[in-house]
Give the backbone structure.
Amino acid sequence: MAEIIYGFGSSHGPLLSTPPEKWDLRAADDRKNPSHPFRGDFYTWPELYEHRKSENDFEKEIEIGVREGRAERNHKSLDALADKFEEVDPDICVVVGDDQHEWFQDQVQPSFTVYFGDEVINTGLTQEAYDAMAQRSLGLALSLAANHPPEDHSYPVPTGLAHRIIEQAIDDEFDIATSGEQPSNEKGLIGVGHAVGFIYRRILRDKPVPVIPILLNTFFPPNQPTPKRCYEFGQSIGRAIRSWGEDKRVAVCASGGVSHFVIDEEFDDRLLKAMAARDVDTIINEPNHMFRSGTSETKNWITVSGILSETSLEMNLLDYVPCYRSEAGTGNAMAFATWQ
């Protein structure tokens, strides 16, 4: 029987791939954003600044020395996760991430998707694609370059386990979507999305470990699953892995999160502590309106917490790093953890 032997969680936000002296590139985008979600409400950037200015001295938080220290901590944790994955050397890795209009568009946006094709390809980044993104946002272009290799990389998919996850989900009355082939458009094959691509590149170091991408719609209304549903879906995945008849050592990964693009340290502290303590009531009863924009990726962690809920693996938070980039408290809060 298969055994879940390791779990890990990693943020994958753009600031991880952006030099700290260039974080202002994304702050400029924040100032243009007319609708910042924060604790159930929406704010323009000036409104958010007024609302939060008494909460913290964000001017100090965005000083270059502070940024550099936090960037160093981020990369220390990423290196630790990559080294640990290499040490554990699992047979299979199940990656839970979110799709942000990469494979799925407004025509169809499934709440839960399991990929079961024979292989998955992280496409190489052409100079043309980089330049096109840089015209829209240099900050996003820098992030895109970190998620894609120079040339296409193919990864095997353990289709037997993918089918077992699908079968178990149906037995557990989840009406999930499945994907057996990567989509294409007029430019050709669409590579695997950022949530999986970042893990391939930064944590797996492009080693062709068999991977199953499991994609959640955390971002786009109106069908984002609730925290409770994500946790229960994770439990279903965990049952599937443990009941699979192959003698394989399986790792699971939560890709993304925590609060961004408005950092909420109280929210992050509450959810990360609840996951470490297996405090299911706190996890599943967090209001759904708290999970908006990038903060919604915390649901990937909740799903992995569900996968690991019936194992003896204990969560260890390697670091929590709030990376502020503007005076209104916008940025990316990063979290890195293992379950061992």
Notes: The chain has a mean pLDDT of 95. The chain has one domain: 3-250+276-339. The chain has twelve helices and 15 strands.
